[in-house]
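Anyone else keep sequences and structure tokens together like this?

Example one:
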Amino acid sequence: MRVITCLLTTALLSACQPTPPAEAMLDDYLERLARVLEVDEPPLEAASLPRMPPARVLQVDIEPLSINLLEFWEFRRCGLAEILGERNSVLGRVMVPSQHLHMDGRILQQLRHCIDTLEDEELIELASELEDRKRQQWPARYWNATAAAPELRAFWSPATTPLEPGREASYQRALTALRFLTELPQELERQQWPERTDLEAQYQALEQYALGGRLLQSLTLGRRYIEAGSVMLERARQQSTLCPGGLQKRELEYARNVMVKVFIGNIQPWLAAVNRRASGVTTEYQALLAQQSGELRPALQPFAEQLSEHHLAFQDSLRDHVDRWKALFDSCDSKAIPSR
């Protein structure tokens, strides 16, 4: 009985979920097309969204480095001992990848300061050895905390809703955060490593806005509906529903109104905004992958290729839809938008 109750509750909750504005807008478009074209709406094509590989496949194990107590004590002279102490604390041992990255950045920055300011040759040599070992680990540390980070998985999670019409630019912070991660290696080289609060704010934006997942949902939703609309336009053209025997019906003008007021007025601006935002995110994500180690990058290459293919399929469907509208009016010896 409890199982049945849970199932009913789940079904009711699902039924109460409001339709995302973008989907409601596209639903309305297909309904209007069905009326003016006098054709049935085809079933929407099933679609699967690209997904990142499992976390266990992407995360790289990194062996911790250690120094003896005397060496640790000597590094008080250049301020490194305090950072190493924080790193080796109880909390330091359970840090998430982004916190590990921030700590390693601080250590590398302070090691460079030690090398530049210490006068003890043995200590300088030890600091140089530690810097070399840390830099050898850097590609894996950077990978774990950026390309393979939990926050990037949340960024690309499809468990979200499409971009809302009119609010497509509301997620700029997430795009800025993606660029921020890409620039971290350069910031380290310039000895301008960010403060922890600044870094955490960028990771929070990635997770909070889930811009990548919203775009995947938007691209998929737009393509499925636009492809269905293209099928309807092609059926109307083949069946000559708007101009049987070459005679133009009043519905041809109604169809023109749907194209101008609904498709061009509402649908196309949203599709164009999704396309622009997807282009920006794809560019920034490719830049982030380009910063990664050549040995690690192949693990995400199939996912990156799926993202590009998903975007291209969306663009192709939009171009085809515009062509279908033109073909429909051409078949009735009429212009899609008559010259005045």
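And example two:
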Amino acid sequence: MGIPEQTKAAIDRWHEVVNTRDLTAVRRAAVDPIVVSGPKGAGRISSDEFADWIIRSGIEMRARSYHPVTDRLMVVEQDARWPRNTEWTRVATVFRTTGERVSAALRFPDLGAALDFAHTYAELAATEQA
């Protein structure tokens, strides 16, 4: 599968919002609420909470590689760093997009774990009955 352009564009905008801390652009980059997960838990957060996380965490993220799973689901391997740590740390995030926005950003400690989850999620979603 090639990299879906609209999905990649949405994920690239998400990275830009996080890295530039452009709080005005938060609503254009992510749906409200957005589903997130990381080392401190998982859940749905509002765009205001997303903006607060951007400021509070001080995180910087660089996309390293893109791994499409479906048209709307992609795993991105990233380098991340926080204000208290100048070294970059490799992580991976499962992104789901809705239209031109990110609707889920689920962080994992490594690419393998993120890909395993993404493929399981894709199979689960594909077999969901209305």
